[in-house]
Amino acid sequence: MATTHSPPTTTARHRGTDDGARAMRIPRQPAHALRSAPLYDELAREWAARGATVPGLPDPVWQQLVSWEYFQREIAAVVRDLHLRGAEPVPEPGAPPAPPRWQRV
Questions:
Q1: What dihedral angle (degrees, nearest 10) is formed by the CA atoms of 86, 92, 98, 102?
Q2: How far is Cα 10 from Cα 104, in angstroms, rounded to an integer?
Q3: Polar residues bias: where (predicted)?
């Protein structure tokens, strides 16, 4: 007995669930290749002196932002700011809100 349906002709089901978006991957070079390049060494020293991110080394700005001390400092600043502003004002009663333009069935 023959089947009455035909197999799918697209390969969309093989693409995965990422909706076609692909993660950008930066190729990593071996550490010995980076150490043997004098131009890279000079650029890495210049970037490190400026505080910029150097490939293969931890990013100092990111490390600061994800540190526990930075988190505590930010929380303390927000709480202090909220405390200095005082309590939120209570809105004055006004006209009743307009009814919604739509209604559930």
A1: 20
A2: 41
A3: 1-11
